[in-house]
Amino acid sequence: MPTLRTVTGRTSFALLTVALLGGSGSFARQADAPDSMGTQLSALSGSGLMLASCQERMQRLGTMLGKAGYGPMRSRLFDGTTMIARWYHPEHHTTVLAVAGWQDSGNAFSAGEFAGLVRWNELAGTP
Questions:
Q1: Number of domains composing the chain
Q2: Is the separation of the CB atoms in 12 and 125 below 8 Å?
Q3: Which of 9, 17, 39, 100 has CB atoms 3.0–4.6 Å from 54's, for a disulfide?
Q4: According to the UniProt entry, where is the signal peptide (predicted)?
Q5: Would 108 be classed as within a structural domain?
Q6: Quick one: CA dihedral 110, 111, 115, 117, positive or negative?
Q7: SS3 content of the chain, % helix, strand, coil (to 5)
Q8: Which residue segment(s) compose the domain that 41 sits in?
Q9: Tens digit of pLDDT per residue, the chain (127 long)?
C-alpha cells in the first residue's frame, strides 16, 4: 500500500509533467511551427486507458515520428507508474514528449511538441 509520501511525490511529479505538456512554461516553449504535429499529437491523448492502449499509442507515436524524421525514442519509467518518452528532430530543433500512465488501468496519455531540445534534467522530478 502506498504511503502518503509516495502518493504525494507521484502526484507532484504528475502535476508538474502535465503543466509542462499543457502549456508554455519556464522549462520549454511549445512549438508553433506551421508544420507542427499538434493536431496529430492531440488525437492520441486520452484518459481512463488500459496499459495495452497506452503501449499501442506510444508505438503509433514512435512510428509517426520516425517517418517525420525524428530520432529514436528515449524513454524512462518512473516509480513503475509513469512512462515518459522523448524524440528529437535535429533539423527542426523540436522535441516531442509523451507521458503515459503505466499501470494496468486508469492511465492517461498525453504528448506535446516543444521548440529546442528538452533534456531529461529539465524535467523536474527526474533522477
A1: 1
A2: yes
A3: 100
A4: 1-31
A5: yes
A6: positive
A7: 35, 30, 35
A8: 36-121
A9: 454 444 344 544 554 454 445 543 434 444 444 455 788 899 999 999 999 999 999 999 999 999 999 999 999 998 899 999 999 999 999 999 999 999 999 999 999 999 999 988 887 555 5
